[in-house]
Design brief:
The protein is α/β, with parallel strands linked by helices. It folds into 2 domains: 143 residues, 3-Layer(aba) Sandwich (Oxidized Rhodanese, domain 1), CATH 3.40.250.10; 120 residues, 3-Layer(aba) Sandwich (Oxidized Rhodanese, domain 1). It is 28% helix and 12% strand. The chain has 10 helices and 10 strands. The radius of gyration is 18 Å and the shape is globular.
Length: 285
């Protein structure tokens, strides 16, 4: 249904295809701990017609205390099928327009072998600004048939990032705000240390988004943001953030620039920043 290699689709494209039989729309909105109303309550109040809620916290590994870590392939397939998604479907993920966390859902689908996945550029904010229809209440889909095979190359573990401290084979890019990256403010999750992974670079994900329209900036602007942070786009890359969600924005932006083979540090600062975690650095890089 979509042939472009661009991971984004426009609101105009979605409006034209919303009734297609093999299209599935997912509201993957997410908010930081303690934020109210909760993302699911926002979904119940207003969502794109037919959209089901992709809960980042639910479609996750519940055997760990770390937030929304990747589940195994069997759970992902089961949870996604329950949302009405089948392996032959085109999936469009969107969020409120905050970019939390449609790119995370996009990267998860790719990691589990489903390549026909797109992100709605501008999310619900742009959709509503253009007069797009919304509906309220929960959607109960007919279960789909989905098969998943996990490719571990899409993610990195704490051990792999620790090993990288010495080798520096991969560049680590942190999507958090500069204040959090430099350790000048407390983390939103209680009990975490402040700072960043030694040697990592900082590209706050908000710098890649046009605040007025909630759309991703042009490829030229994206390239400039990475290069200004000292990121070499022709070298291996790993993205990180507070808990593996907004890192997906960097991953998607890199993908738009033609970067393939990057990875996402799933545990991110929620794991690295634990009191007994690995070494950290503070201040700018």
């Amino acid at each position: 249904m979509t042939s472009s290699d661009d991971p984004l689709v426009s609101t105009e494209w979605l409006a034209a295809h919303l009734g297609d039989a093999r299209l599935r729309v997912l509201d993957a909105s997410f908010k930081l701990p303690g934020a109210r109303p909760a993302a699911y309550d926002d979904y119940l109040a207003a969502h794109i017609p037919g959209a089901v809620f992709f809960d980042v916290d639910a479609i996750a590994d519940h055997a760990t205390d770390l937030p929304h870590m990747y589940p195994d392939a069997a759970q992902f397939a089961r949870d996604v099928a329950a949302l009405g998604v089948s392996s032959g479907d085109t999936v469009v993920a969107y969020d409120s327009g905050s970019w939390m966390a449609a790119p995370r859902a996009w990267w998860m689908f790719l990691a589990f072998g489903h390549t026909n996945i797109k992100v709605l550029d501008g999310g619900l904010k742009k959709w509503r600004a253009e007069g797009g229809a919304t509906e309220s209440g929960a959607v109960t889909p007919t279960p789909g048939r989905f098969s998943a095979t996990f490719d571990p190359a899409f993610v990195r573990s704490r051990r792999q990032i620790e090993d990288n401290l010495a080798s520096r084979a991969e560049q680590v890019i942190d999507a958090r705000s500069r204040e959090r990256f430099e350790g000048r403010v407390a983390e939103p999750r209680p009990g975490l240390r402040a700072g960043h992974i030694p040697g990592s670079r900082n590209v706050p994900y908000g710098d890649l988004i046009d605040a007025a329209t909630a759309t991703m900036k042009s490829p030229a602007d994206l390239r400039g943001a990475f290069e200004a942070a000292g990121v070499a786009l022709d070298r291996p890359l790993v993205t990180s953030c507070g808990s593996g969600v907004s890192a997906g924005v960097l991953t998607l932006a890199l993908y738009r620039l033609g970067v393939r083979g990057s990875a996402l540090y799933d545990g991110s600062w929620a794991e690295w920043g634990l009191p007994d975690g690995p070494p950290l650095a503070t201040g700018p890089t």
